[in-house]
Amino acid sequence: xxxxxxxxxxxxxxxxxxxxxxxxxxxxxxxxxxxxxxxxxxxxxxxxxxxxxxxxxxxxxxxxxxxxxxxxxxxxxxxxxxxxxxxxxxxxxxxxxxxxxxxxxxxxxxxxxxxxxxxxxxxxxxxxxxxxxxxxxxxxxxxxxxxxxxxxxxxxxxxxxxxxxxxxxxxxxxxxxxxxxxxxxxx
Length: 187
Hints:
It is built from three helices and 13 strands, in the order E-E-E-E-E-E-H-E-E-E-E-E-E-H-E-H. By secondary structure, it is an alpha+beta fold. It folds into two domains: 9-82, Outer Surface Protein A, domain 3 (Alpha-Beta Complex), CATH 3.90.930; 85-166, Outer Surface Protein A, domain 3 (Alpha-Beta Complex), CATH 3.90.930.12.
């Protein structure tokens, strides 16, 4: 039995959870919105008192793997509809900036063209200033995916640290060629 999967998930006040056995979906409704999760074949969920209990029907390898995963996803959904999720990014580099244009984020990060990232429904992107980006939403996976897509436009490079990085990310800088060899032109 999965150590994580067998632990019931507490339902806080203001959150409603409904399990539809026919369509095999769990719906979590809270003050910030509603999220749905489709259950994998072999996994079932039920609301028991003030808790959600996740059970598995058999001991197949895939079902065992999804037991704890499903429990973690439901816990993340509950946290998302109550508190929400946020990822902060920073833009480092001379002339590098991020500007919000409606439902698109325009990034000027050293390329000839401005790179535009489309912002999907369910995610809010704000730019307090031109070098900081905040991605917020109720779906943990979607918030993380959009933050990763923005970072992927220009990952921080290891020599000067220029690029887009997470606010809590530490970029280890490498020494340049001349520092590594001890001097140019020596034989």
